[in-house]
Amino acid sequence: MLLRYRQDLKGARARLAAVERHVVSTTWGAVEYAQRSSGDPVLVVHGIFHNCAGGLLSARDLCPDRHVIAPSRFGYLGSSMPTNATPQAQADALAALLDALDIDQIDVIGESAGATSALQLALRHPERVKHLAVLVGNLPGSPTAVVQPSLAKLFNRQLPLWVLWTFAPSMMVRLVAGLPKGFAMSSEDARFVTEFIDSLFPVSPEGVDFDAFVSNADVNDYNLEAISVPTLIVHTKDDQLASHEASKRAAERIPGARFVSLESGGHLMLGQTKIIRDELAHFFAETRDRRAEPVAS
To answer: Which terminus in the chain has less CB density within 10 A, N or C?
Structure first.
């Protein structure tokens, strides 16, 4: 088993090495990012367990004609974990990344646990955000928006997750993809889920702990009514991880926000790629008619 573990991790590192990654220095330490394609830029903020490479993967079919910029959040891969890190500091670090890339304004996608810092970017730096899209996000009142029990540290590590993926793959799929029992995946869905779960390795424990014990629960205190940037929230009704109802309530609180409810697809929104791609393209094409000032958050 140990030999297989080492071989699988070697393969994971090789896949990661194939992704061209860059690092910029900021007040909050190193901020790593990857990018691909050309066109108008879009910032993709990844979820728990993921990283800049995972951000590229998540956006690959959703924003095929965009210049995707995918940072690794605090503690993931090559990004630093500042002392006493907060989602507010993470948002400031994202703004610093935009400064380093000489980007004045950008469309932003916050996915799952990445919604927390994406919301903070919109609250603290609204002048930098053209549009904010939140996909199956960690939002106030969601089951994900809690401080996990301390025992989670024993499970949220590379070896236990590898054991689960290797010897109980169906359980790992349900855990990561947030699918209801009996969900029928197409062969295309199955390939994507496998690629998605493989991309979670190697695991970055500092980043995972930041999400599990700090960032996720922080979202409950956000003044969503103060968000002034155009906002789109998308969620599937059968997501078994984050809450569809919490997303709906968040959209009702954010002035002018649009909520798109999808019937199925779980946390990875399987089978909904074309709908989401079209929704994002239409939303990002809308002209922003307001400029806003930062608010206390």
So the answer is: N
37 burial type by CB count under 10 A (0-12 exposed, 13-18 middle, 19+ buried): middle
State the chain's mean pLDDT as an integer: 95
Q: Which residue has the tokens 């074309």?
A: 274
What is the structure's pLDDT at 290? 43
Pure H helices in 75-218: 87-100, 115-124, 152-155, 158-167, 169-177, 187-198, 205-210, 216-218
In a domain, 202, yes or no: yes
List pLDDT tens digits, range 12-46.
999 999 999 999 999 999 999 999 988 999 999 99
In a domain, 158, yes or no: yes
Q: Which of 155, 190, 153 is nearest to 271 (CA)?
A: 190
Q: How many domains does the chain have?
A: 1
| CA quadruple 222, 226, 230, 233: dihedral sign | positive
Rounded to an integer, the average pLDDT of 66-73 is 98
Contact 110, 224 (CB under 8 A): no
SS3 187: helix
CATH number of the domain that residue 238 is part of: 3.40.50.1820
**How confident is the model at residue 291, as a pLDDT?**
41
Residue 217: how many other CB atoms lie within 10 Å: 18
In tens, the pLDDT along 218-242 reads 999 999 999 999 999 999 999 999 9
Q: Which domain holds residue 190?
A: 2-285
Residue 248 lies in a domain: yes
Residue in 159, 201, 273, 155 with CA at minimum distance from that of residue 54:
201
